[in-house]
Design a protein that fits this description.
This protein has 86 residues and is mainly alpha-helical. It has a single domain (10-85), classed as 434 Repressor (Amino-terminal Domain). Helix content is 64%, strand content 0%. Helix 1 (10-24) packs parallel to helix 4 (55-65) and helix 2 (29-36) packs across helix 3. The longest helix has 15 residues, at 10-24. The termini are far apart.
Length: 86
């Protein structure tokens, strides 16, 4: 179960946004990991919020997905998107 944005840690916010963007772009964890130069296990741990990801790896993941890093750390990224689509 996901925590509400108010109580989610930055690590959890990044992981949740990473997973959502990856799924929206229909990219597997394995493909994302390959394109970012990381392991699939590492990507899985980042998405679940159990891995403390470095800023360098955050940048590699954002670049591999073709999204700005700032979007992946924005706790309101998807709520803002839903408002724009409404």
């Amino acid at each position: 179960m996901e925590k509400p944005n108010a109580t989610a840690t930055p690590r959890e916010i990044f992981g949740r946004n990473l997973r959502r963007v990856r799924r929206l772009k229909e990219v597997s964890q394995e493909a994302l990991a390959f394109n970012a130069g990381l392991s699939r296990t590492y990507v899985s741990e980042v998405e679940r919020g159990v891995r403390n990801v470095s800023i360098d790896n955050m940048g590699q993941l954002a670049e591999a997905l073709g999204v700005p890093l700032k979007d992946l750390v924005d706790p309101d990224m998807f709520s803002d998107m839903a408002k724009r689509l409404a």
